[in-house]
Amino acid sequence: RTGSTWLLQSLINNMQKAISNSGPKLVIYSGHDWTILNIILILKLTSIECFMEHFYNGTVSEDCIDEFPIFTTNVLLELW
Questions:
Q1: How far is CA 23 from CA 7, 10, 18, 19, 26, in A?
Q2: Which of 18, 31, 44, 54 yields a CA-CA distance of 20 to 30 A from 76?
Q3: What is the pLDDT of residue 42?
Q4: Half-sphere exposure (Cβ direction) of 27: Cα atoms closer than 13 Å
Q5: Can you tell me the distance from the alpha carbon of 72 to that of 15, in angstroms, rounded to the nearest whole number?
Q6: Mean pLDDT taken over the chain
């Protein structure tokens, strides 16, 4: 999780700036599969335990994302 701390902090900073009308209205980030996986973990949409359970035992859970992010996977965050 610490590998994406800078990204999470950047997301929060840009959202705070957008709320105060002192920053950009649209920010686009690009990253690799591990970056996407870290964001999914930070948002608690999955956990390492769930991910590894599926990988090693083939267990399918409805409570979490249990597949490695594939090519063209994206995460979209909107601030309203």
A1: 17, 12, 5, 8, 9
A2: 54
A3: 79
A4: 16
A5: 24
A6: 80
As a dihedral over the C-alpha atoms of residue 45, residue 48, residue 54, residue 59, rounded to 10 degrees, the angle is -70
SS3 23: coil
C-alpha 65/C-alpha 54 separation (Å) is 10
d(C-alpha 27, C-alpha 15), whole Å: 9
Distance CA 22, CA 76 (A): 22
* pLDDT per position as a tens digit, 32-48: 877 887 887 777 777 77
Instruction: Count CB atoms within 10 A of the CB of residue 26.
Output: 6
Q: 63 or 9: whose pLDDT is higher? A: 9
Instruction: Write down the pTM of the prediction.
Output: 0.64
